[in-house]
Structures are given as C-alpha cells and as structure tokens.
Amino acid sequence: MSILLVAQRRDMKPFRDAILNADSNIDVEIWPNTTNPARVQFAVAWHHPQQIWKSYPNLKVISSLGAGVDHLLRDNTIPDNVQLTRVVVPSLSDQMSDYVLTAVLNIIRNSELYRNQQLESVWKSHPAYLKDELTVGVMGLGELGSTTAERLYLNGFKVNGLAQSKKELKGITTYTAGTLGEFLNQTHILVNLLPLTPKTDGILDLDLFKELKKPAFLINVARGEHLIEEDLVYALDKGIITHAVLDVFSTEPLPDSHPFWGRKKITITPHIASVTDPDEVAVLLIENYKRILSGMDLLNTVDKKRGY
Ligand code: NAP
C-alpha cells in the first residue's frame, strides 16, 4: 500500500520528505507520478483536481492536508465508501490564536490608522479602546475557535463564543446557532472560525453586520466564501463596520484588480493565519496510515453529512 499526496497549488515534496524522515519504510508518491494506482489506499489532498479518484480503485481514505475540508466535500466524485479525515494538530490552533490575538490588539490600539498616518507623515493621536470596552465574539468553537477564544480570554478580553451545540468554556459566554442574533448583539469584534458548509456559506453579509454592536470590526480567518464581499465594502463605506482583517478570500491569490487592495479599512494577509508544518503533520498522517493497515478507527474523521 502507498500514500498518495495530491495538490495543484502546493509543493508536496516537503510533506513527502517529512513522512519519509519519520518512517523510511512507507511508500509515498506525489500525484500525478503514481507507479501503481491500485496500491493507493490513502491519499492526502489539498485542492486536488476533480475526477482523479476513479484512477485509484482501492482508495479507502482521503485526508485533507489542513483543518478545512470544504475542498474535499465539494467534490461529488469522491466515492461514498471513501472516508474523509483532516489535520488536527496543536500548532494550527496555536498559530490561529496568535493571529487573532494580534489582530484584536491591533484593532484596539489603532495600529492600522497609525500605519496609514505614517505613510502620510501625520502626527496625530487617537484614544485606544480599553480591553474590556469591546467584546470579541468567536463564531465556531471547534479545534481552532475554542483555543482562540480561550487565548483572548486569558489576555483580558471579554469573549463570546458561538457553536452549533452548547459549549462550556471557562470565562466565555457561549451561544448556539439558534441564538445567533443574541450573540451578534453582544459582539463588537467578530472573529469567523466556522467551517464552510451550506449553512455558513455567505453568512457574513450586510444583515449580520448590522446586528453587531458599534463600533464593529470583522476578522475573517475561516474561508473567503463565508463573506459577501460587496456587503463588506458597503458596510465599511457606511461605517457599519469600522475595519476588517481578512486572511481568506473567495478567489486566492486575491486578483490584482480586486477592490479590497488599497482600502485603508481592510487589512489583508495571504491565507497565512495558520499553516501546516510538514514534520508535525507527518506524524498524524503516519498514525492514520497505520490505522488503515490494521483496520483501526481513524483519527479526526469528517462527518460528510454535517459538512465538517
Ligand atoms: P471545526 O473544528 O470543525 O469546528 C467548527 C465549529 O463551528 C464547531 O464548534 C461547530 O459547532 C461550529 N459550527 C458549525 N456550523 C455551525 C453553524 N451553522 N452555526 C454555529 N456554529 C457552527 O473547525 P476548525 O478546525 O476549528 O476550523 C475552523 C475554520 O478555520 C475552518 O473554516 C477552516 O477551514 C479554517 N482554517 C483557516 C486557516 C487559515 O490559515 N486561515 C487554517 C486552518 C483552518 P459544534 O462544535 O457544535 O459542532
């Protein structure tokens, strides 16, 4: 049996090397160079080309190379009997928590405003927000969202959290999907860490922005498709949202002509909030590979019906 690494926009060699460094007995190949497709039972994919799976008749499991699985679930050519798994490792949650904490601190300290003033040689002070003046609301309390909410709380912020089911997290006021309106009405800085599913696609729209407490800010670190981009532009122009920090976009890389570039009220990063480390991921992939071989239950399985 072999592991097949499949990606279109990503160099998979570091992942192959990390797997081989951890266990040189594993047979690992990078798509499209498969010597014997019938030997492939485990594939690891990141934005794979659709329709390729029919070439691998004995495929049992596909793992996402990251935490998100929307790229796998939108491929309806994956056979029903193929199980899906994803990457859940401590460093992904740690990096995401740091990214969001940094973004929130930059918001309360007006960092972007001062950066823009510097570019125009302007010396002018603005009152900073106090930590307990603005409430941060984290949408999605899964692997990344729960750690992020806890880190914000431990750094002195008032934190709300939203999940599908009721959660108990120390110091955090939690809401469920049925009380989304209440959650938004109690939130100034909205952090999106939801999975991309039919229920959450386009959830960040003008109606939602209007529900937030003023001044309102948006940090989108989940998926670009959560956001209705023109609604954000309108909300920023009308002062409904004061500033947005965006790490993910419906088209990546963000096209040169995109209206988000050059807007002072938007901070852009190129999908780097939380990046998978080959050595750390290799350990998890090898564990699941061995579980496939021995018929054991897999780690970090995805519920295809639920969509995450
Ligand atoms: P996860 O572990 O699957 O957690 C999802 C959370 O969202 C759960 O708490 C779930 O509630 C909640 N949820 C699902 N649908 C909901 C709904 N309709 N209303 C309210 N809550 C809902 O996800 P994760 O691994 O933390 O990943 C979060 C997001 O980050 C994903 O979109 C992923 O693609 C993205 N991501 C981004 C980067 C980056 O670099 N920007 C890196 C990695 C991941 P229950 O707990 O009740 O089920």
Detailed description of the structure:
- Helix content is 30%, strand content 18%.
- The two termini are 27 Å apart.
- The protein is elongated.
- It has 2 domains: 2-89 and 276-294, NAD(P)-binding Rossmann-like Domain (Rossmann fold, 3-Layer(aba) Sandwich); 93-268, NAD(P)-binding Rossmann-like Domain (Rossmann fold, 3-Layer(aba) Sandwich), CATH 3.40.50.
- The mean pLDDT is 97.
- The protein has 308 residues and is α/β, with parallel strands linked by helices.
- 36% of the residues are buried.
- NADP nicotinamide-adenine-dinucleotide phosphate binds at residues 66-68, 92, 140-145, 162-165, 177, 193-197, 199-200, 221-223, 247-248, 271, 273-274, 308.
Key attributes of the depicted protein:
308 residues; alpha/beta; Rossmann fold; 7-stranded parallel sheet; 30% helix; binds NADP nicotinamide-adenine-dinucleotide phosphate
What average pLDDT do the residues reach? 97
CATH architecture of the largest domain: 3-Layer(aba) Sandwich
**Which structural class matches the secondary elements?**
alpha/beta
Widest sheet: strand ordering: 8-7-6-9-10-11-12
Q: H/E order of the elements?
A: EHEEEHEHHEHEEHEHEHEEH
DSSP, total strands? 12
Q: What is the molecular shape?
A: elongated
Low-confidence stretches: none
Query: What's the N-to-C terminus distance?
Result: 27 Å
The helix count comes to 9
CATH domain fold name of the largest domain: Rossmann fold
CATH top-level class of the largest domain: Alpha Beta
CATH superfamily of the largest domain: NAD(P)-binding Rossmann-like Domain
The main pleated sheet reads as: 7 strands, parallel
Query: How many separate domains?
Result: 2
